[in-house]
Amino acid sequence: MKELICALLLLFPALSINEIAVLKPTVDKEPYPFIDYSRNHIDFPSQVKFEGVYELLDSAFAGTRSFNILHFGGSHVQAGSIGVRMRQLLEQLSWGITNERGWLFPYRVGNSNSTQNTRSEATGEWTLQRCASNKDHAAWGMGGIVVSTATDSATLKIWAWKPDSSNYRGNEVRLFYNMQIASYTPTWVGAENPVSTRIDSTLGCIIHTFEQEVDTLHWQFVQTDSVQIGIEVQGCQLLSQEHGITYNEIGVNGASTASYLRCEQMEMQLPSIKPDLVIFGIGINDAHVPQDDFSSVAFTNRYDSLIAVLRTSNPEVRFLFLTNNDSYYKKRHPNQNASSVRTCMYSLAEKHGAAVWDLFEIMGGLGSIKSWEDEGLAKSDYIHLTRQGYYLQAELLFQAFMQSYGDHLQEKHGMLQTTKPTIPN
Predict the structure, then answer these.
(1) 363-412, pLDDT tens digit by residue?
(2) Which CATH number fits domain 1-100+243-425: 3.40.190.290, 3.40.50.1110, 1.20.120.10, 3.40.1390.20?
(3) What is residue 336's three-state secondary structure?
(4) What's the pTM?
(5) Number of Cβ within a 10 Å radius of residue 117
(6) In the chain, fewer beta carbons within 10 Å around the N or the C end?
(7) Averaged over 124-146, what is the pLDDT?
(8) What is the layout of strands, in order, in the sheet containing 67-73?
(9) Which CATH fold would you assign to the domain 103-241?
C-alpha cells in the first residue's frame, strides 16, 4: 500500500500526505488459514481491463469529476456493513473523497433492518413492500423497495453519518415516489428552506436545492385530492456539489435477479445515479433452491436483461461480479449451486467485458462458511455473515481492487513496482 500512496501523491499533488492515511484493519489478527489469499484479485475473463474505470478514478482523486459506484444485492447489501467499510477505507486513502452519500432508503420506517449508519423516523402508518416478495405488488424503482402511507399529514425523516460520525450533508435532495398514483404532495419541512423545488417527471422525483448544505431529509405528505390513495416512497438522494466517489448501495432482503427485473421504474430512475461501475452481488437467493431447480440458462438470461437496463443510463458503465459467498441450503448441507453461479458469472463477464471477484473461492470454497462461523465471521444460518465478516469481505475486495488500480498506475505512469497492497496491522 505504501507504493500506491506514493503513486497517488505523485499523480495528484493537490493531495497531502495527511489526506492519504495508512489503512487500519478491523480484523486485527493473523491471516485466517481457511481463506485463500492467493485468489484475492480481480479477474478479467474477456481480457478487457478496467482502464476506462481507472481513468475516471484518476479524475475523482484529482477532484475534477465524480465517480459513481452502484452496488446491487440482497440482504448482504441491505445490512450496509460492506458499504460502510468500503467508505471507511476510501476515506483513509483520501480524506473527504466520499463526502457525497448518494442513495438512501428509510428501511426502519417499514419495520425492516436499517442500513448501517443510516436512521429514519416517521409519523403516520407506513407499510413496506419488497420486489423480493411474491405477495407484494408495487411500482418499484431502482431501489426495489417502497414504503407507503395513506395517512394525511404523515411525515418522513432520514439521515446518515460518515466514518468520522459527522452527518452527510448536501445542497440537493431528491425524493423518488410513484407519481402514477400519488394523491399526496411531498412538502419539505426540514430546518433549512429550499431555494427552489421542482418536479422532475422524467426521473420520477421531487428535487429541492439549498443555499446552505442540509444533513436531515424531512418531508410531510398532505392529501391533495378526495381519493385517498396515498403515496409510495421509493428512495431518496442526498447530493453534494463536491467531486469525489459516491458509493451507492441498493439491497433488498431476499432479492434475486428475478426480483430486480420486477422494478418497472428502474430504467427511468437510473440516470439519477448514472453509475460508472456496477458491483453485482445478486445470486445468493437465486441459488437457494434444490440443486436440480437451479437453471444456469435462466440465471444468465436474467443478468443479461439487468445489464441491458443498466446500460441505458450509461453505455460505458462497467460491471464487477461478486461470486456468492459459500452457504448451506436450509442449514443441511453446503449449497452446490454456488459453483454454478460462479461459472455463470465468469461466462457473463467474458460476454460483457466485465470483471469477477471470486468471493466463493477466496473464502475457502465449498463448506468454508462453517469455518467462518466458528471464527465469528458468519451467522449460524450459514448464509449471512456477521458485521465483522462483512467488514473482512469489504477489506479483501478493497485490497483486490486497489491492487488492480495500482497496476493501472504502474502501466500508465511507470511510477511504482506492482506489489500486493495490504491493510497493515
Answers:
(1) 999 999 999 999 999 999 999 999 999 999 999 999 999 999 998 888 87
(2) 3.40.50.1110
(3) coil
(4) 0.91
(5) 20
(6) C
(7) 96
(8) 42-43, 355-357, 318-322, 277-281, 67-73, 245-251
(9) Jelly Rolls (2.60.120)
